[in-house]
Amino acid sequence: MRRLLKGWLVLTFLIGGPHSTVAQIATGTAPQAEVIVPPETSAITSHRANVNGVRIHYLKAGSGPAVVLLHGWAETSTMWLGLIPKLAQSHTVIAPDLRGYGGSSHTMDGFDQRDVGTDIHELLEAEGIKQYDLVGHDLGVHVSFYLATKYPEAVRKLVLLDSVVPGIAPWEALTKDPRLWHWNFYSIPDLPEALIEGKENLYFSWFLHYFAVNSTAVEKIIPQVAAEFTGAGAVRSALQLFRAREVDAKLNEEWVKANRLKMPVLALGGEGGTGAVLFQQLSTVADHVEGGVIKNCGHWLVTEQPDVVFDRLSVFLK
Asked: Are strands 92-96 and 132-137 parallel, antiparallel or unpaired?
């Protein structure tokens, strides 16, 4: 599927080199990653929508009940390309690039889970989708959790993959875990992007391997990931989602004081990733939770163990 992608999705950077100023990005003058629309005969089509003050790029396939797929850091909607055709056999699949990522607007503000969640909510409204199953990975879990709390009547089932929900125990302990060093590193203003820009292939190759168990599978996606985060403002804008996590934590801390999730929840982690953390977290705030730990798998579940993930999804989403 990633070979197929090369036939219709090309990232081009139209002005300048890999660096950009904050002013360029803030005013919207920095060049944007351009996603070429696939042929109409493709099973997966590419779309854009203006919602909540930003332009969101998203992939769409299939027909039937809707399932929405939300990526995280070091990812875009292309992370789901191996799963989309399978899910599309029984579902309408929507896979957006979150604001700041891929072919969506590379803005410098509006990155807490309320803003990004509203982007997705308005996108689905524009598509005429009133109810949907929701799947999130990594930072996509933050947005997915918010959507489930804000629009419980819309989210039929919730799937969370290898991440941590901000503000829910053991959140505080995990913020001090040295294995999650990148959380604090990415919070430093300007420095991470200054070190990564121009060295995207080196950095993302190291980063993807660091959090992987199945390195062979991860090796195949490194060129695509590096390309998606190369270009003016690509790294800087994507990091803003990380920098909003403390706001997200406070919002969730308040929500759990008087609320619980009522929809069915599936929480999965990689053996070499966050393990059972999501399952433990959701068990304290949701009424119907199932899940577990995927063996021989690190953080990148969909890449490292795609068949296992699809099998669990197909059963849960029936």
From this structure: unpaired
Q: Cα(263)–Cα(132) distance, rounded to whole angstroms? A: 11
| Burial of 40: CB neighbours in 10 Å, binned 0-12, 13-18, 19+ | exposed
**C-beta separation of 139 from 116 below 8 A:** no
| Residue 272 falls in which region: left (phi positive, over 0), alpha (psi -120 to 50) or beta | alpha
How big is the chain, counted in residues? Answer: 318
- Neighbouring CB atoms inside 10 A of 272's CB total 20
Residue 115 in 3-state DSSP? helix
One pLDDT digit (tens) per residue for the chain, 318 residues? 333 333 333 322 222 233 332 233 233 333 444 444 444 446 999 999 999 999 999 999 999 999 999 999 999 999 999 999 999 999 999 999 999 999 999 999 999 999 999 999 999 999 999 999 999 999 999 999 999 999 999 999 999 999 999 999 999 999 888 989 999 999 999 999 999 999 999 999 999 999 999 999 999 999 999 999 999 899 999 999 999 999 999 999 999 999 999 999 999 999 999 999 999 999 999 999 999 999 999 999 999 999 999 999 999 999
Phi, psi of 59 (to 5 degrees): -100, 150
CATH of 2-316, one of 3.40.50.1820, 3.30.1490.20, 3.30.420.200, 1.10.3470.10: 3.40.50.1820
If you search the block for the tokens 């039929």, which residue do you land on?
A: 156
Provide the terminal-to-terminal Cα distance of the chain, rounded to the nearest Å.
24
